[in-house]
Each structure stands twice: as structure tokens, then as C-alpha cells.
Amino acid sequence: MGTPANPQKYAVTNAPSRIDGTGAFAGEPIPGRRKIGEIRGETISVYEAWERARKLERIMIVEVNERRAIDASRSADPLRFTNHSCRPNAVLRIRQGRVEIYAMRDIAPGEEITCDYGETHHEGKLTCRCGAPGCRGAL
């Protein structure tokens, strides 16, 4: 069995983010409506995901369906550091059990890649720091 194909379609780097901690940044121009890449990780039950989330302040877990989740905490994929924004430039999609990120518009080199997390385990108790016009203020 060989090495799995690289799921990253465009160069993405990680660097300090003005939004929160480390962010994912475009390493080259990314055209709109194109797949940027994927976030891989450990497949766990949703129950285990909620247990892990309860114990951690920072999580990198995505529910892929009502029974399964992906914990990307130990993943090497640079998109695992994609921060939330109330005015994102990318969208997270679950396709055939994979967590994929697509550009909503052209993204310039050096621009932080962001997604709207939607509902989270924080239940509106975590302050949003995206700074976007019209920010909801909480996650």
C-alpha cells in the first residue's frame, strides 16, 4: 500500500492569525469555487467528539454525520488551522465522509483562509474575534 495522495490542491501555510492563534493562509493565488484541500484526522464517534470537546478549550473536531466525527488535532494538514469568520472566503463541505474546504471567491496569496463554523459546541458562549463587519460576536 502506497502513501495516500496529498489532499491539498493549493499551497497553504500556517502562521500567527489576527483572529485566533494559528491560521491557514493561501500560499499561492486560489481561484474562487475551487477545492483548496481537505482536513484529515482520527475518525471517532460523535459521543467521543463531545467528550473530547468538553475537556479542551481549543478543538479541531468536525462532525461528518450523526455518528462520526474527525479529530484533526494531530493532523499534519495545514487547513486544520482554518479559523472562523462571520464573513468567510471559504466553505467547509462534508463529502463522502471527507472534510473539504472550497474557496467562495478568489483568495490572494498571504490572505487568511476562513470558514463560518455555524453551530458549534460552544453554544454561543465563546467570543468571536473575526473582526468582520456585521460579526455575530459569538460562536
From TrEMBL:
Residues 124-139 form the Post-SET domain. It is found in: Chromosome. Signal peptide: none annotated. InterPro entries: Post-SET_dom, SET2_Histone-Lys_MeTrsfase, SET_dom, SET_dom_sf. Residues 28-118 form the SET domain. It comes from the Bacteria. PROSITE patterns: POST_SET, SET. This is SET domain-containing protein. It comes from Sphaerotilus microaerophilus.
